[in-house]
Each structure stands twice: as C-alpha cells, then as structure tokens.
Design goal:
Elements: H1 6-31, H2 56-67, E1 70-75, E2 78-83, H3 86-94, H4 97-100, H5 108-111, H6 125-138, H7 147-163, H8 168-185, H9 195-210, H10 213-221, H11 236-265, H12 272-283, H13 290-322, H14 324-337, H15 353-365, E3 375-376, E4 381-383, E5 386-388, E6 393-396, H16 438-455, E7 456-459, E8 489-492, H17 499-506, H18 510-513
Parallel strand pairs: 2-6
Antiparallel strand pairs: 1-2, 3-6, 4-5, 7-8
Helix pairs in contact: 6-13, 7-8, 7-16, 7-17, 8-13, 9-11, 9-13, 11-13, 12-13, 13-14, 13-15, 13-16
C-alpha cells in the first residue's frame, strides 16, 4: 500500500530539490569557463594518494610538466589551484591583489593557538590592525635602526663558533633568538637555557609538532576529534590542542608583561612592543583591543623570524660545505674589499656583489617555504580562460631558474660581476600578503653570512683517517623545512685564532657580551 500522506510529499519535494540542484550545477558548469586542467581526482580522497606528502612541491612541479602553469587538484575535500609560474603569481597576487589576498580558513587554528597569526588571518579588520602594527615597526625606512643589534648578535655568534664549532645548530638558533628578542622585547638572552627563550621555543615546538599537514587534514575531516575529553583513550589531538593553548597563553603574556614591568620603572629601550604601545595610545579606537593585538603581533614577529632565519642559515652552511668553490670566491671578495683587520658592516654591502649573490641563491636553492603560503580568493575570477571560484586555495612553486637543483650564485651576476636585477623576492611572498619583515630579515641574513665568511670557513668533517665524510643533504618535512643536522668542520680564517683576536675584530668584551 502506498503512503500518500506527508511522507510521500516530503520525499517528492526532496527529490525535486536534488534534481533542480543537479541541473543548476550542470548549467552553471556549462555556462562558465572551464576549471584549470589537472589530475583526475578519486572519490573522497581526491588527489591525495598521488601527492608526495614529504615533499609536495615536487608533485606540484611534476604536474606542471603535464598540465601547465595553472593546475587544479582536490586534496580530500579541499579544491586547490597550484600556481607554478612567476608570471602568473605576479598577475594574480600583485595585479589582482584585491581578489587574491585572502587566506583559507581552518577549524584547527583557534584550537591550536594559531588564530592570531597574521599570516593565517582572513582579510578583515583584525588582519589590517596587525598589518599596521607590523608595517610601522618593520618598514624599509626603519631597517637601519636595527643594524647595531644585528651586528652585535652576529659578532656574538662568531665567538660561539670559535669556542664550540661542533655545536653550530645551537649557535645559529641562539643568533636568531637573540636579535629578534632584542628588537621585539629589548631582551637579549645571556645563556643558552634562558627561561624566556624556553617559553618562546616551547610554543614553536608544540605548534610545529601538532599542526603537520596530515594531522590538520584529519582534524578538518573529522572535527569531532577536537571535542572529545582529554582523558578519553586515543584523544591525541585534543591533548595536543591543550598543550598548544597553554604554550600560546605563556608566549603572549610572559615576555610582554616583562616589558610592561620594565616600562613602569623606565628601564627599557625602544623596541617593537614599547613603540607599538605608545603609537596605539595615540590612535586607539573604542572597542578595539590594541594591547592584545600588540601581544599577538610580537609573538608572530618572534616565531616567524626565528624559524625562517635559523633554517635559511642552515641552508647557507650546507651550501658552503657542498660548494667550496663558491665559498672561496666569497672569501676572496671579502679579503679584497674589507681586508683582514676588520669585519664587514652594512656600508660594505654594495661592494660585495658575490656575497649578495650567495644570499640570493641560498633563498632560491632550498627556500624555507618551498611551496609558499596558501592564499584564497574573495570572489570568483576568470584568468586566461579558466574559472577561479571564490574561496579556493592557491599555492606557489618556482622553477624559472635553469638547473634549479644546482647551487650557482653566478645566476644572479652579469658577466662583469655586477648584480642582476633579480633580488629573489620569492622567499617573501607576493602582493598584500608579502612578508612585512622582509627588510629586517634580509639585513640580518646578510650581516651574519658576511661576518661568518670573513671570520670562518666551513668544510666536510674528517674521519679518524683524515678522510672527508660525505654529506648527503636531508631535509625536514612539512610546510616549513630545514636541513637536518650534518657533520661539518668550522675553521677560523683569522691569524692567531683566539678569543682575544676575535674581540679586537668585533669590538666586543667576551667577559660581558658572550653567551655562556
């Protein structure tokens, strides 16, 4: 017997809605330009199974050879458009930045103390406030105000290399932490186990461990995993979330309150936090919590700066070990321009084009963010005949340089030895979302690379028979990468390789300035 009551009516209505929805989608698909070409996605998983999860940018590069500079793919339930061309990236992220400056959102950001990261924020008032705070502190005209602390921290690092050359990873990390904490909080750590550094590093460690691409995809697909109690068996993601939230609270409050206490006694020099607080007092609007924004921006200035600077310097050391000919050319240039009685300073930079080329090639060879930070569109767009829907994510991989796996600083030099116009902007992003701290980061990298090359050389380590130990480069996986620790031998270049001689070259007092 047929049911001719409300049940049949609702079933018929649901069927009609489904048919109309399918028809609407069909006609929309036919009436608009096609999506970009790409690999055929499988049901549910999309193209995830064909993705190299350890090095996804290699998969994107392989897709380019088949599908071109604009590639459509679907990773689980996320449609993605991959940009594999600098020309396309400039067209979209710079010339159409009003459309392409948003960020794809995730339910995991707030649960893992990452929602205050300006690099992940959606385009809006909160992002604009953070961006203004960053821009006022780190715009290009402000860069020279940081030169003194950058030189001092770079020179302090040289003493660490001299006294304990085998512990290079710790020295590079301490340099990054020291100069960034100095300019953000007017705080220079005096020991490797400094408690403030520990607070900052703990936040970085727990966030990096928890928000891997795989874990993020699982939590986005099964959001209930973040709702179960910590005590429940298998509640790994929830426990990681609690850890991150605790670390996020500490990293915002502890260093900030230390600055506030010193401000109350007048015992603090101008820094990112103090200058931002003073500026915001003059322009604060009702209902806008600028103090919280400054706390958050300070954390991100530290987190972003430490990770990228440390990783880039490790890439530099690896490149010098593997390419001694490039290192020898840099030594010769420094000796000719600077001499051996002092160390380079920023006034020497224009006269050291080969050192500049090494920096640019270091950023290009193994970028810290090899496939960039995803962007999202705020409205649908048509580009080169392809339909780019609203809200879809994008990532960028760069292969414009011939023999990209080779380390060749000469690619940034003309035949006469002068620099080309390619300043390697790729490592800092595009358009409105370009890294606001790029000028400070560039200066820090240059001074530490030039100082190291003036004072030291780095070579392959030797075994017990005096034979060189081969170095096989290995890199971490994830969104941000860095070289895994490798054996090397760091040797002073200056005569009478002593603390006293290095003190004369740097002008530092080792008994006062050097980290214990």
């Amino acid at each position: 017997m047929f049911d001719d009551g409300p049940g049949l009516y609702l079933a018929t209505l649901a069927w009609a809605v489904a048919v109309l929805s399918c028809c609407r989608k069909y006609w929309l698909d036919r009436s608009r330009p096609p999506l970009p070409p790409g690999p055929t996605p499988l049901p549910i998983v999309g193209n995830v199974l064909s993705l190299d999860t350890a090095q996804p940018w290699l998969t994107f590069n392989a897709w380019r050879s088949t599908y071109g500079d604009i590639v459509y793919a679907r990773l689980l339930n996320k449609p993605v458009i991959v940009i594999n061309s600098e020309e396309v990236a400039k067209d979209l992220f710079e010339r159409r930045s009003a459309i392409y400056s948003d960020k794809p959102q995730s339910i995991v950001y707030e649960s893992f103390a990452s929602d205050f990261n300006a690099g992940l924020m959606p385009h809006g008032d909160r992002w604009r406030l953070h961006r203004r705070i960053f821009h006022q502190a780190f715009r290009q005209t402000e860069t020279p105000t940081y030169h003194a602390v950058q030189i001092r921290c770079a020179h302090k690092m040289l003493f660490s290399f001299l006294q304990d050359p085998g512990n290079y990873l710790s020295h590079v990390r301490m340099f990054s932490a020291s100069f960034i904490m100095s300019i953000v909080y007017d705080y220079e750590p005096k020991a490797k186990d400094d408690p403030i550094v520990h607070v900052m590093q703990r936040y970085l460690d727990v966030i990096t461990a928890a928000l891997t691409p795989g874990a993020t995809a699982i939590m986005e697909t099964f959001p209930f995993l973040l709702k179960i109690p910590c005590w429940f068996p298998g509640a790994t993601f929830k426990r990681a979330s609690v850890q991150c939230l605790d670390a996020g609270h500490d990293v915002k409050e502890i260093p900030f309150q230390r600055v506030k206490e010193r401000m109350s006694t007048g015992d603090v020099a101008p820094c990112f936090v103090t200058k931002s607080l003073n500026r915001m007092k003059l322009s604060e609007k009702d209902g806008v919590d600028t103090t919280t924004a400054i706390k958050e921006a300070a954390v991100i200035a530290f987190a972003g700066g430490v990770e990228t600077t440390t990783s880039t310097l490790l890439v530099f050391l690896l490149a010098m070990v593997l390419h001694p000919e490039a290192q020898a050319k840099a030594h010769a240039e420094i000796d000719r321009v600077v001499g051996k009685d002092r160390l380079p300073d920023f006034d020497d930079r224009p006269a050291l084009p080969y050192v500049e080329a090494i920096l640019r090639e270091t950023l290009r060879w193994h970028p810290v963010f090899p496939f960039g930070a995803p962007n999202a569109t705020t409205t649908s767009d048509i580009y080169k005949g392809y339909f780019i829907p609203k809200g879809w994510a994008m990532t960028h991989d760069e292969t414009k340089y011939p023999s990209p796996d080779e380390f060749k600083p000469e690619r940034f030099l003309h035949d006469d030895g002068s620099l080309t116009g390619d300043t390697m902007p790729l490592g800092f992003g595009w358009g409105r979302r370009i890294c606001v701290g790029r000028h400070v980061a560039d200066a820090s990298l240059w001074i530490v690379i030039s100082s190291f090359l003036a004072a030291f050389s780095v070579h392959k380590a030797l075994d017990e028979h005096g034979m060189e130990i081969p170095v096989v480069p290995k890199f971490s996986t994830g969104v941000a990468i860095h070289p895994e620790e490798f054996p090397c031998r760091i040797v002073p270049r200056f005569a009478d390789a002593s603390v006293k001689t290095l003190a004369r070259l740097t002008g530092l007092d080792p008994s006062v300035d050097i980290i214990a």
